[in-house]
Amino acid sequence: MPDSILNFLALDRYFGLDWAAAIFMFLSMHRLGIHKKDGFVFAALASMCWIAFNLIAHSPAGVVANVIIAIMAFRSLSTWNKTHPKNNIQTTQDS
After folding, report:
1. Beta carbons of 52 and 66 less than 8 angstroms apart
2. Rounded to two decimals, what is the model's pTM?
3. Tens of pLDDT along 25-84?
4. d(CA 47, CA 42)
5. What is the SS3 assignment for 12?
6. Which of 35, 47, 75, 90 could form a disulfide with 70 if both were Cys (CB 3.0 to 4.6 A apart)?
7. What distances in angstroms separate CA 53 from CA 6, 19, 56, 79, one per listed residue?
8. Residue 8: HSE in the Cβ half-sphere, 13 Å Cα cutoff
9. What is the rounded CA–CA span in Å between residue 7 and residue 5?
C-alpha cells in the first residue's frame, strides 16, 4: 500500500481504538434497528473505546460525552424489558 493510504488509515496512531469504536457503533445501530437489546452493549463498548481514544487525544469533552453515552446505554439496557413494545404486547395478551 502506498504510504499516503497508510497515513490516512493511521491504524497505529490511536492503537486502533477509533476503528474499534466505529465498528462497535455501526453494530449497535444495526442491532438496535432490528430491535435487539445487545445493541446497547455494542454502544457501551463503542463509548469505552471512544473514552480511551479521547484520553489519548487529550479531549476532555469527548471523555465526558462518552461517559454519559455509556451510562445511558447501560440504563437503556436495564430498562429494555420494561419499555420494549413487544414485551408490553405479550404482557397485555397474558392478562
Report:
1. no
2. 0.73
3. 999 999 999 999 999 999 999 999 999 999 999 999 999 999 999 899 888 888 887 766
4. 9
5. coil
6. 47
7. 19, 10, 5, 28
8. 5
9. 5
